Amino acid sequence: MTSEQYDRVTRRCRELFLLKSQDYGPAWIMLRMPSVTDQIYIKAERIRSIQVKRENRVGDSLEGEFMGIINYCIIALILLEMQPLSIGERQAALADPGQLAARYDRSLAHAREVMERKNHDYGEAWRNLRISSMTDLILMKIYRLKQIEDNEGQVAASEGPAASYVDMLNYAAFCLIRISEGADPMN
Q1: In Å, what is the CA distance from 103 to each residue of 41, 90, 132, 141?
Q2: Is residue 165 a contact partner of residue 63, using CB atoms and an 8 Å limit?
Q3: Disulfide engineering: 165 pairs with which of 37, 51, 76, 147, CB 3.0-4.6 Å?
Q4: How far apart are the first and last CA of the chain?
Q5: For 81-103, what is each residue's pLDDT tens digit?
């Protein structure tokens, strides 16, 4: 059941990503990794702020922000994969929309595989978490990631940046699943 729900929510994210790519192209290839992390931070902080204040003045849905987190995490995973390439080489590699979709799908398949392994071991514990708690976990991962970036990617005893992006993506997907089941995104 979880895998089907996961596929359903991430399929919507993929569709939005590819539509925006038609509009803008892969303009995000210009971003450095800390900028991608900061984009995820902005979305997660907005979600938390609305959850705390219990008021949404802009009107954009929290669901849309969680979708944005997923897509920025995919962007991060693609950029990490392409890190040795110059911006020009990245542009050439992503000029074909099919290539961009294939990279998106590879990154998402990896995140899904991690989700399935962890979901097995943790026994779907996320289903008993509040959406606000998962938002806090995403923010915690962002702060950890910022520290890793400030240390130029060097870690002594932790997983690298890719694992953090995958975890944030999966928490955001779990939030979308819970929202689709009727959970209050404010709690």
Answers
A1: 23, 12, 31, 23
A2: no
A3: 76
A4: 23
A5: 998 888 999 999 888 889 999 99
